[in-house]
Amino acid sequence: MDICAYPLGIRGHLRLSEMESAIQWACRKRAQKIPIFIHCAYGHGRSVAVTCALLVALGVADDWKNAEKLIKEKRPHINMNALHRKALDEWSMHKLSTAKKG
């Protein structure tokens, strides 16, 4: 098992560079067909934000809002706050991840 821990801030503040590093790492593992597990302290906010960005980077969702809907179908009690959404908006503007559909 390959483990990678990223300190994604407490109480919602997600640093764009750290979120991007986590997404790039996860994209590399998925490209290698290695399962990944994303979690934060409570599993309702930061991990959801990173998963939203990852779903966009992998081409599973067109944008983070659609990714959030996909996640909510399976986990209805997710609860991203305004800071999570702001980080996703910032990430979306920069789209640093290079994973493509297909």
From TrEMBL:
InterPro entries, sorted: Dual-sp_phosphatase_cat-dom, Prot-tyrosine_phosphatase-like, Tyr_Pase_dom
Tyrosine specific protein phosphatases domain boundaries: 17-86
Single GO MF descriptor: hydrolase activity
Superkingdom of source: Eukaryota
Stored Gene3D superfamilies: Protein tyrosine phosphatase superfamily
Protein name (Swiss-Prot/TrEMBL): Tyrosine specific protein phosphatases domain-containing protein
Species the sequence originates in: Camellia sinensis (Tea plant)
Organism phylogeny: Eukaryota, Viridiplantae, Streptophyta, Embryophyta, Tracheophyta
